Amino acid sequence: MLNEIPIFSGLNDAELEKLEKVAVVKTFPKNTILFSEGDQSDSFYVVLSGKVNVGINDEEGREVILSILGEGEYFGEMALLDGEPRSAFVMTKEPTQLLIISKKDFESFVETNPDIIINVLKGLLKRLREANKKIESLALMNVYGRVARLLTQLSVTRDDKTMIEDKLTHQEIANMVGASREMVSRVLKELSDEGYISIRKKKITLHGKLPYEW
Ligand code: CMP
After folding, report:
1. Using only C-alpha atoms, what is the Rg of the chain?
2. Per the CB 3.0–4.6 Å rule, which of 96, 99, 107, 200 could disulfide with 46?
3. In angstroms, rounded to a whole number, what is the distance separating the alpha carbons of residues 137 and 35?
C-alpha cells in the first residue's frame, strides 16, 4: 500500500516495512477538524482514501479553501519541518482514511531517508506554483474568470466527458475563489445558461473550454 504513495517512492521494502510499523491508520467522519491554524504540530498525515479541505479562517468565520487534498496526497509537513505552528486548518470533506506518523518518527525517518525530503520539496514546489496561479487569478481576474479557471482545474476527462467528480457546493466554490456565495451562484447560472456547463446533483459537467475573460 505505502509503495503507491508518491512521497514514499524511492524507499525500499525494508524501509517501507519500518514505516508501516510506526504509522497508525485511522478513519475520520466527514467534517472532522484534524487540526486548526496556529496549533502546535505533532503528526504528519497521508490521505489513504477520501478528501480533506486545507484552509484559513478569519475572526468573522469567513473561510478560504487553499486546496483540496485526496488519495496519495499528504499534509502537516510544513510545521513539522520548520517548527512553526500549523499554517492552515485541515478538515475532512468526506469520510477519510489517514495514515498518521508522529513527529518523532517522521523526523527520525527523514534523517535516515533523505530522499523523502526531495519528494517533500517537489510537493512544496507544486503547491507554490498552484499558489502563484491563485494569486494571479485573485489579482488579475474577475469572479467569472476565477470560477471558470477553478472548474477547469478541478475537472477530469474520462470517456470524452469532462466533469468535476466531487460534489461542490456554491459556498465551497466561493471559499476557493474568494467571492460571495451569491456571486458564485450568479456566475454558475450564467455559465449554465450559456451552455458552458451543466449541473446535476451538485456535479458539474463542462462542455468545451470555459472562457476566462468576460
Ligand atoms: P502544516 O502547516 O503543518 O499544517 C497545515 C498544512 O496544510 C500544511 O502543513 C501543508 O501540509 C498544507 N498546506 C498549507 N498550505 C497549503 C496550500 N496552499 N496548498 C496545499 N496544502 C497546503
Report:
1. 19
2. 99
3. 28
DSSP label at residue 200: E
Q: How far apart are CA 72 and CA 85, in angstroms?
A: 24
Edge-first strand order for the sheet with 52-57 is 33-35, 89-92, 52-57, 63-69
What b/e readout covers 8-20, taking b as 16+ CB neighbours within 10 angstroms? beebeeebeebbe
C-alpha 208 to ligand 1 mean position (Å): 32
Q: What's the CA gap between 97 and 144, in Å, rounded?
A: 35
Give the Å distance between the CA of 211 and the centre of ligand 1: 30
Cα–Cα distance measured from residue 51 to residue 61, given in angstroms and rounded to the nearest whole number: 22
Cα–Cα dist 114/11, whole Å: 10
pLDDT at 136: 92
Backbone angles phi, psi at 171, to 5 degrees: -65, -40
Separation of first and last alpha carbons in the chain: 46
Contact 17, 3 (CB under 8 A): no
Residue 87 has which C-alpha cell?
499554517
Q: Which three cell numbers stand for residue 137?
A: 487569478
- Which residues are 56's β-sheet partners? 64
Q: What's the pTM value of the predicted model, to 2 decimals?
A: 0.90
Q: Give yes or no for residue 73 CB within 6 A of ligand 1.
A: no
Q: 92-132 pLDDT, tens per residue?
A: 999 999 999 999 999 988 888 888 899 999 999 999 999 99
